[in-house]
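Model: Ready when you are.
Researcher: Fold this.
Model:
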Amino acid sequence: MSNRSTHNRRGTLAFPRTLTAVAAALLVSLAGPGTVASGAQNHAPGHECATPSIDRLQQWIASGEGTTVPATGSLLVPERHGYSAKVTFLNDEWHVAVVWLGNQFESQADLSRSRGFWMTYSATDDLYVQLRPASHWNGGDKWLTLVPSTGGKTVKRFFSFADDNWTTLPELGAPTYSFASALTEARGLVFVGKTANTIDFRGLRIHGYRPPCL
């Protein structure tokens, strides 16, 4: 199927349904240098886009893969003076939620000089985030890092782009390209998880990168 199809644009995984020993692949610490409790993300006037966005990221999408609420479409909902992106994963199956870094599928960003990103979120269970490059968008065999459960509390956490913070899962397969090369053509961050989970994103700021508003 072409990358220009709606399904593939949102993040095709083609995941199998059985989970192998995932924890063994994540023995290194993936959390980054700090976690702090946080409330709703507050943005300076003029920081956000004219249409709904979180840290100028306008495309937060439920891909239709896995049973989720919402099933498809935008995750953005009004939240106090801005927006949050809310999604619920249901059942023990792979689920997918996508953020396009350039706010359109055809865009990509060079993050090779970025140290990582701060994310303000809450989650009731662990999940993962994949960095997907433009040249290898489809499929589950991507570099990823753990997004730890917060027990439903909103926290702000740093996720480093250091190579040793990103790994693979045996069930999903190993990518054929390096993580360093993926950073040079980053198209999106894709959140995946195989357990029931209630997730609320309040902020996502990437060091050295300012998303273009559309």
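Researcher: Now this one.
Model:
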Amino acid sequence: MNGLIIGGVTPLSTLDFPDALAAVVYCQGCPWGCPYCHNEPLREITDQAERDGASVLTWLKGRRGLLDAVVFSGGEPTLQDGLGPMLDAVRALGFKVGLHTTGMYPDALAAILPLCDWVGLDVKAPRAAYDRITGVARSGEAAFASLTLLLQSGVPCETRTTWHPGLLTEAELAELAGELAAADAGRWVIQGFRPDGCTDTTLSAAGPTVFPPDLIARLQTAAPRLTITARV
């Protein structure tokens, strides 16, 4: 199983798969240029892979009974053709499979959704502001197409948005809340920006995002069909 280029592994996480102990496998490669990215070293696919798929599977065999799930994150996992076979192999070991994705490749996401037990979809912005955040034209079309696929699949999921007020205004957050509510997205987590790992010095200099005390309540009032929480 050498078809997945891996940038790192977190052996144990209680946060990356709901109500489960999980390992997190970080896949290399992401063509989007979001300025708040905290995994900058994973953007390029290199020959400096920390682990290969075969060694990760060997390690996971020894974690059966200790872990519940394996989450594939990135980078963008669906960029790599080796993701599907790796998910199959992990499921064969008896683990649940989680996926963190930007939804940039809807066709690739559709192909692997039957192998997923839970998906966290990173929604960057309202449609009109997407290209400004990612630096890639029509990126919002791909992300919202993936949102539709995910919601239609019935796979348990949440949408998440990283918020830095220098990148998205509160009005744009409210616009996104309306778009997610219209899609019947269910659960939306707003994650405060943290400078750890971010290479954009202007954003990092501002420090972690501080949420206005009533922000979540105002967004919840504007989009009552969503369940909105903050993660700081």
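Researcher: Key takeaway?
Model: The chain has one domain: 5-231.
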